[in-house]
Amino acid sequence: MDQTHARALEAIQPFVALATSNSATSPRFVANIVTNATSASQTYVFAELLETPTIQALAAPDCPAEYKGYLKLLEIFAWGTWQEYQETPNLPKLSAEQTLKLRLLSLLTLASTTKPLTYQALMKSLSLPTTADLESLVTTAIYANLITARLSPASTPPTINVTSVAPLRDVQPQSLPKMITLLTEWESRCGEVVTDLETEIARVKVNAQKRHAKEQAYRERLEDAVERRQAETARKGGNGMDGRAADDFDEDDGFVSGDNGESWSRMDIDEGSGVGRGGSRQTKRVVGRKT
């Protein structure tokens, strides 16, 4: 699409050169420039030609009435539509080449502003009598790289699905203040978004610093606790018994001391194994008595 725009700019240059030459002295000559420029196959942008003094001179009061309409005709080719041409009186008649060109340019505008782009709406806006004429026009636009589109005649309703449009329509001067306002509002919204993003970034950084400080403090407390635990363990002798020696505990030798100084073993041995005759358990004998 950018190449199409570059070719269109290049194609209009010979006509701009004619309009700025010393030969462009009569309204008739200037009108011929407009006719030839709008009929050429690769010319789709006309703003540069419109800005030349000789073209603008067609609006002068002393310009013959038969040539005044050529300025309006060139403006319609620059940013207007086929329907606008049909509704504007006293305009020059179009040749077959001009008719095709204006319909192609109008198709670009309609593809950018009308959704969905139905067969019926296009045929009405472009004054095309049959669907075959419409499909031929759309096919020409596709092969000329003016649009990227797909015909859907079997859909309900039949539509043309346009995915891209070449930037070939000029901007109407009266629309510039509105465009400037829209761009200013867009710039303001972009500034607000950037400010919000910067605020969010600052908040994330502050939270990250706080989290890092908290983790650092936790690690320091953990290391201090480990060091204190190790020091305490070393102070207690490393045996986990609060410094008490092993001989502080009474060793059980298996004997019991009596009141008279005698001692005996706490192990009892039965005289017999099991229950004796008569169903009574036999008497236990204490062994291991020592004096």
UniProtKB/TrEMBL annotation:
GO cellular component terms listed in the entry, alphabetical order:
COP9 signalosome
- Sections of the chain in a coiled coil: none
Q: Where is the composition biased (Basic and acidic residues)?
A: 221-235
**Biased composition, Basic residues: where in the chain?**
282-291
InterPro entries for this protein: COPS7/eIF3m, PCI_dom
Q: Keyword Zinc on this protein? A: no
Residues annotated as region Disordered?
Answer: 221-291
**Which keywords are on file for this protein?**
Signalosome
Which residue numbers delimit the PCI domain? 1-165
The record's similarity note reads:
Belongs to the CSN7/EIF3M family. CSN7 subfamily.
Q: Cross-referenced PANTHER family, in alphabetical order?
A: COP9 SIGNALOSOME COMPLEX SUBUNIT 7 (PTHR15350:SF5), COP9 SIGNALOSOME COMPLEX SUBUNIT 7/DENDRITIC CELL PROTEIN GA17 (PTHR15350)
User: Can you say what this protein is called?
Assistant: COP9 signalosome complex subunit 7
